[in-house]
Design a protein that fits this description.
The structure is a homotrimer.
Chain A: H1 2-5, H2 8-12, H3 15-44, H4 61-64, H5 71-98, H6 104-126, H7 133-156
Helix pairs in contact in A: 3-5, 3-6, 5-6, 5-7, 6-7
Transmembrane segments (chains A, B, C): 20-41, 87-115
Keywords (chains A, B, C): Acetylation, Endoplasmic reticulum, Membrane, Mitochondrion, Mitochondrion outer membrane, Transferase, Transmembrane, Transmembrane helix
EC number (chains A, B, C): 2.5.1.18
């Protein structure tokens, strides 16, 4: 095991780590995009969660009617939460995977498929596309993360 | 301080980091498991959030009745969100802690108790066990993370 | 590119990384604080999500009335979720940014503004302050993260 991990510090300074940094930044930026998308739908659908957000729309009772849920806003929020649930494991497991010394081509394959699947998932959720588009794109990203977790545990398992 | 952190790069290549990688991967996989558990309850309870998920169950009005919340589904979702709220701090603070050069035995104690507490928390939430099972398992994981944060700030504080 | 990243392993052992570790630990601890704040409001407002949490308040029907949502509890929960949505990108992009060799003063500026903005955001959400306090504090943290992401992609882009 020491042999496999011995050159770990040198591995940070390599192309696998650059690829991890690139794709992680891309999927995190994609996730961050859900915040302005939520704001856009809240404003255009006039559906807010906080009283202080509706003061520009009227006073007293006339503003209260904008404190409501809207199907489009809720859809974007579910999509955002699904990103959190799936990108957080990628962030952690992907970092450990990148430090485990995988082949560059294998690592790129994992990172590219994950990023592509999450971007497709967002389109499938927001358009929305008919199922199983959203289910499949979710499953592909999930499977990539499991595959990286398997490689990490095979390399460093230390209980 | 330079002395304490001087050998940081070498520390990555050691057993504390392997232990961090192992337990982080385990708790992230455990968190990921909540997604198929949610899907299982959505399908068996016929309680969905998106119209496109109900098309296989019927057409028009007959499918609409499956767009509803279900107590079991909501319970799994709360458990999943609680994982996010607690495993994200472990992911970040645990990594920094592992890089701070703790004793291997101390680090293993922290990682093992955290992972055990989060697994217990999930059982306590989903069975559900009577309180204070869920509260205590949550508090133990929380205290472990605070303990690691204290060690990190004591070692590297740089404001 | 090799030149820019060549000394990456050495960079971990430096003041930028210590600053990252400090501010990341601070914002994660701040986020963790939302859990006891939620518990405080659930107990004082007697508004719970799980039947097993209400057993100490009465039996049968008399306990059921405490299974409800409360505006103050929901406000804290939205604030907590907003933390997750914004601190997770900071955790990942900030780590990669710290490894990209920024100037110490520039890095400190990013980390300090982000941490300050998130702390202000929590106060603006929980007091609550009139808008645009919350919106602006959110936007400042968001802009800092985008700025760090730009630096990461400019330094390591590897598609």
């Amino acid at each position: 095991r020491s042999g496999e991990m011995a050159k770990l510090t040198q591995l940070i300074d390599n192309e696998v780590f650059w690829a991890y940094a690139t794709y992680t930044t891309i999927v995190l930026l994609k996730m961050m995009l859900m915040s302005p998308v939520t704001a856009y739908f809240r404003i255009t659908r006039k559906a807010f969660a906080n009283p202080e957000d509706t003061t520009s729309l009227g006073k007293g009772e006339s503003a209260k009617k904008f404190l409501r849920t809207d199907p489009d806003v809720e859809r974007v929020r579910r999509s955002h939460l699904n990103d959190l649930e799936n990108i957080v494991p990628f962030l952690g497991i992907g970092l450990l995977y990148a430090l485990c010394g995988p082949e560059l081509s294998t690592a790129l394959l994992h990172f590219r498929i994950f990023a592509g699947a999450r971007i497709l998932h967002t389109f499938a959720y927001l358009i929305p596309l008919p199922q199983p588009s959203r289910g499949l794109s979710w499953a592909v990203g999930y499977a990539v993360t499991i595959s990286m977790a398997y490689k990490v545990l095979k390399t460093v398992l230390y209980l």
